[in-house]
Amino acid sequence: MKDLLRTADLSRSDVELLLDTAADFAVKPFLANSALANRTVAIYMTKPSTRTRLASETAVAHLGGTPIFIRGDDLQIGRGETIADTARIISGYASALIIRTFKQSDVDELGANSTIPVINGLTDDDHPTQLLADWVTIREAFGRDIAGRKFTYIGDGNNMAHAWLTMGAIMGAHVVVATPGGAYAPDQSAVDAAQKIAAKSGATIEILTDPEAAAKEASVLYTDVWMSMGDPEEERSAKLQSLAPFAVTEELMALTASDAIFMHCLPAHRGEEVSAAVIDGARSVIWREAFHRRTTIQAILYHLVRGELSGNTF
Q1: Domain 7-127+290-305, CATH 3.40.50.1370 — does that match?
Q2: 233 falls in which pLDDT band (50, 70, 90)?
Q3: Among 112, 155, 223, 279, which has the minimal tally of Cβ within 10 Å of its Cβ?
């Protein structure tokens, strides 16, 4: 496995290895501080970032490497140079490339034309690095045995909903996504792909339109912002109105399991997708989740550069 372009690229054994290594890096961040010695990692972002940028640069530094941050307008792509040519150029300078951008097809093209590992730091379709951070956090809360547990995402059927379904399917979990129907439902192709993985892993996939049913006895209640980067501003009013019943409130959290946790990939808009009482409350693990963005990106770089991930078998 050369690249991590989407969550579905990972096998269950890959995920387990990455989670174990991330847990080690959480305790000993400099455990492999010569793994990228005298090497560089390009970090190319056409979308603004807090966690992905900080986590990526810190992860590279903790592995002994030098991060090179590149903004969207820093490269000649904006002036007509092809993605394929850019991939070949970056491959000659860096040992890996982390990209955060809009189109999944751009990430796929970079991976196809580079000779170095390409890591998807976020696209409009998927967010694999976030899901690994989520599952390290889930493992810290509940351990490895997830039998009988229900993992619920509530809100917009966006890239996070897609990644949540995929990772849950890989892990053999009972995963639920609850959204309004229609335009704000997850893409059917993402649901179908998760169901295909679930058929082999033993996972249970549920797509609901009832937030209370989704929250009932859930071990995790997860949400994301309702207006993502690139969403048309003129759709804001209608979208917020449609999603209002899916806000994570204290009342919704009260329906969850007694040991349930609240998760959010951040940034958050208190008073929209989640109440301040929930996100800042005792059951929220958002800061630990954000911390693990670094540990998991560090684990991805460590194993991918060494060629130690096998790739999915689904």
Answers
A1: yes
A2: confident
A3: 112
CA atoms within 13 A on the CB side of 199: 7
| Catalytic residue status for 62 | no
Q: Evaluate whether 121 touches 129 at the Cβ level (below 8 Å).
A: yes
* Annotated catalytic residue, options 62, 174, 292, 293: 293
100 is catalytic: yes
Asked if residue 282 has pLDDT above 90, the reply is yes
Amino acid at 198: A
CATH number of 131-286: 3.40.50.1370
- CA–CA distance, 66 with 95 (Å, rounded to integer): 10
Question: 130 catalytic, yes or no?
Answer: yes
The catalytic residue among 6, 51, 62, 127 is: 127
Sign for the CA dihedral angle at 191, 194, 198, 199 comes to positive
pLDDT, tens digit, for every residue of 80-96? 899 999 999 999 999 99
